[in-house]
Amino acid sequence: MVFSLALRYLRDRSSAEELAQDVFLQLYRQLARIESPEHATWWLRRAICHRSIDEVRKRNLRPQVSLDSAPEPAFDASQPDPLLSERLRQLVGKLPEKARAVVILRYQEDLDPTEIAEILDMPLSTVKSHLHRSLALLRGRLQKQEVFSV
Predict the structure, then answer these.
(1) Which stretch of 15-19, 61-65, 110-114, 137-141 has the lowest confidence by average pLDDT?
(2) Residues with Cβ < 8 Å from 31, sequence gap 6 or more?
(3) Range(s) for CATH 1.10.1740 in the chain?
(4) Phi-psi bin for 94: left (phi > 0), alpha (psi -120 to 50), beta?
(5) Which of 3, 5, 17, 79 has its CA 20 to 30 A from that of 23?
(6) Among residues 110, 103, 111, 118, which one has the least CA distance to residue 47?
(7) Which regions of the chain carry the CATH code 1.10.10.10?
């Protein structure tokens, strides 16, 4: 779950692996404060979302050029992908940072808006606004692409 969220958000396998590893190290250090498996899951989601947002901000300040141009491993079709098409993944990747985190948590992790609000430490109405605007934006961009591809 942690790696998957980081990978979806960052769209870079090596950065996602590193970030996931850092979050697990952070969890290990905080283990005494974790009360239950549900609390650990909540803590991990919250930590990886916040760390991913921070990582994107760092990248914007100092962009990195990757020397590793190897293709991603083939997708295992037996596991359903919540973001079905590559086109949709690209469009989600272009959303603003917090809106992207909200969409990923809602549709990849299947969390309720109240859970997302807790994890991202934002008001429920803001989460709902991000979802509403993001979905409208994605629909509009998908429709625009379909018109140009015909």
Answers:
(1) 61-65
(2) none
(3) 1-65
(4) alpha
(5) 79
(6) 118
(7) 84-150
Closest CA to 89 of 4, 149, 3, 2: 4
Rounded average pLDDT over 32-59: 91
pTM: 0.56
| Pair of tokens at residue 61 | 């300040």
Judge residue 38's burial from the number of C-beta atoms within 10 Å of its C-beta, 0-12 exposed, 13-18 middle, 19 or more buried. Answer: exposed
- Domain spanning 1-65, CATH architecture: Orthogonal Bundle (1.10)
Distance CA 66, CA 82 (A): 27
Pick one of 3.30.1330.40, 1.10.10.10, 3.40.50.300, 1.20.190.50 as the CATH number of 84-150.
1.10.10.10
Rounded-to-integer distance, Cα 86 and Cα 47, Å: 26
DSSP string, 56-122: HHHHHHS----S--PPPPPP-TTSPPSS-SHHHHHHHHTS-HHHHHHHHHHHTS---HHHHHHHHT-
Integer Cα distance of 119 and 47 in angstroms: 8
* Residue 102 tokens, joined: 């909200």
pLDDT at 148: 60
